[in-house]
Amino acid sequence: MATDVIEKPITAVESDFLPLLGTDFVEFYVGNAKQAAHFYKTAFGFQELAYSGPETGDREKASYVLAQDKVRLILTTALHPDHPIALHTHKHGDGVRAIALTVSDARDAFKQTTSRGAKPFMEPKEISDENGKVVISGIHIYGDTVHLFVQRSEYKGIFLPGFKKWETAYQPEPVGLKYIDHCVGNVGWNEMNPWVKFYEEVMGFRNILTFDDKQISTEYSALMSKVMSNGNGYVKFPINEPAKGKKKSQVEEYLDFYGSPGVQHIAIATDNIVETVSKLRARGVEFLQVPQTYYDELSKRVGTIQENIDTLRPLGILVDRDEEGYLLQIFTKPVEDRPTLFYEIIQRRGARSFGAGNFKALFEALEREQALRGNL
Question: Tens digits of per-residue pLDDT, 68-101?
């Protein structure tokens, strides 16, 4: 493969057979949704939105919906030990089950994708209550992960039929998270290109960025990544696979502990990363740390930025520039005991790239954490 980053402009697909309006929600299967919801409220500033469970007539599972600006998360747990959700969490630990995409026609989205080879997960179904109706369909993607297509233009309720408003006395302030910028998937050896082909042919996405094992490498490990974007650029899914190195890469560690391909991290945008990260740190969220020497050459590498480097340095916020501007980013440590899912906080000041200039420092920080866990 070429050693350079290959970047392609994000342009509208001439005939977008799967028009996406954005990310509707991300659903996690977790071992204890009530406790997980408390964590996301306390640590990340999410607000309680809706609930479904035995009290609403669901005897199989309980789901808590949290929101912060345009970000919506569902935390779902099984109520019985032999339920498929319980088997999912037994295998994977807490992890992303569904990335739901908002569409104008869920029936057509299902038809378009399955006719192009997608494995059906959910035939189109209409659910309704006194607030209107929603149509949902779905397909399988990598591992045990699925995409849901959600058509909600005729629904005026709090979230979905079957959910009720969720209110408690405990309502921490938000931290400034705005929307999901991208979701990154880890797949196995030699599986990146087949999944790139899947997103191109089945969902009409385009490969807008490619990073090879020379670009994303350290002394010990490497990986490869391709970024897929839908026609309007609203939805972006980078896909990682391991590459040969002296020691185990972060992708291999993820696959070992998750038990299959899956969502590695979710990048959430903010308009003020200094303020957001400061609040997250104060609430106990732990972030990867790069060496302080990273900041010694930062001005020379990225040029003039609005933020004060002496403010970024103690917070560990990284900076990178492309032809259209710059971005600021930082990555949490895994949010569970298994070294699987983590979060990226990102602020874009014009840049549309993904921080290639930070890869070496970031991956060395990841390797230090891997070494502490005995997994490098």
Answer: 999 999 999 999 999 999 999 999 999 999 999 9
Q: Where does CATH 3.10.180.10 sit in the chain? A: 6-11+175-373, 22-165
Cα–Cα distances in Å, from 280 out to 25, 261, 295, 364?
21, 28, 22, 23
Distances (CA, A) of 340 to 50, 90, 186, 253, 299: 27, 14, 10, 8, 33
Residues recorded for the chain? 376
Task: For residue 345, give the nearest of 179, 187, 128, 134 by alpha carbon.
Answer: 179
Please give the model's pTM, rounded to 2 decimal places. 0.92
Tens digit of each residue's pLDDT (9 = 90 or more) over 285-310? 999 988 888 898 899 989 999 999 99
Fold of the domain built from segment(s) 6-11+175-373: 2,3-Dihydroxybiphenyl 1,2-Dioxygenase; domain 1 (3.10.180)
Q: What's the CATH code, domain 22-165? A: 3.10.180.10
Return the number of other C-beta atoms located less than 10 Å from residue 4's C-beta. Answer: 12
- Checking 192-198 for CB contacts under 8 A at 24+ apart, the result is 192/224, 192/225, 192/226, 192/239, 192/240, 192/241, 193/226, 195/141, 195/142, 195/239, 196/226, 196/228, 196/239, 198/117, 198/118, 198/141
**CA atoms of 132 and 184, how far apart (whole Å):** 33
Tens digit of each residue's pLDDT (9 = 90 or more) over 228-276: 999 998 999 999 998 877 667 788 999 999 999 999 999 999 999 999 9
Both tokens assigned to 130? 């006194």
